[in-house]
Sequence to fold (321 residues):
Amino acid sequence: MAVFMQVMGSVKESLRKLLIRGEYDEYSDDTDTEMHAIACLADKLTSFSNELQSMGIPQLNPADFLMEEVRALEEAMGIELPNFLPRSIFITMLQKKIRGVSEIPVDFMHKAWMYIEKVLVTVLMDHCENYPPLQLPTTRAATGLVAKLKEESIKRVHEIVEMEKLADYTCNPEYMIVWNKLMTCQEQFVKIVENENEEPFMEIEGFGRVNVGHIRNHKGVAHQAFDLKLRMTAYWKIVLRRLVDSMALHLLFSIQNLVNKDLEIEIVNELMGPYGDGMKRLLDESPFVAAKRMPKRLLDESRFLVCCVAGNLVRLAGGMV
Fold:
């Protein structure tokens, strides 16, 4: 038990260095860069963020600019004032965009927990190298714990995605700043749409040079479509950053709990067993060692029996004399 507690203390300290404090003195060789856990997780988070950003702004044909918004507005047209932007359309389009990227956070969590499992098993094997009976139960406990935490994280990711679908809300002032900046080109857009003689091309930040000439066929909803597009552009940046922040904070919180309490509890439960006889079972010989020892044991027992029989015969003979 004393050895086990010493091993667990060393394992937890190594994991705190690798997964919390970012200290790599135990794995400082160039060949061990994959054990630089915080740096590797940060790299995975950056890749996840970049993938989200690239998926968030699809490259459309210039002739399709604003057509998605125009179709949505025309399909939702009702008996109402024409200059109001229906919130239901914005929510519907937002949900569609979120569904398009919903698998990316899930994939990130899968990759992150697979990497964390690799770090856990490596550290456990290094510290249990001289204690073979501890290797199997500790790694089994670690992989089981990671599987459970990964499942919880995936569930949490789905909840975060569903929350983003629920409403269009942010207290981040950047939304209004970006929207107002984008809307500075609204006057030029109106001028092009209303005047057939104007060149149909214009520059919009974030979209580059776009063709809006085809919107002249939809003048009834052109203003609303333009407003809807720019509102979604401004808000979508907030959504993507919020997703990245949520994934990062959840992962850091889960790692803290894993290292500080969950791993030790899981390993102790695995070692002790349901009836508390785990330590006793660790002292049992493995079948392989017992099989090797069996012939010698049988030989020793045979010699013992021969000696006993011989001794009894001698005593019997002496009694007869």
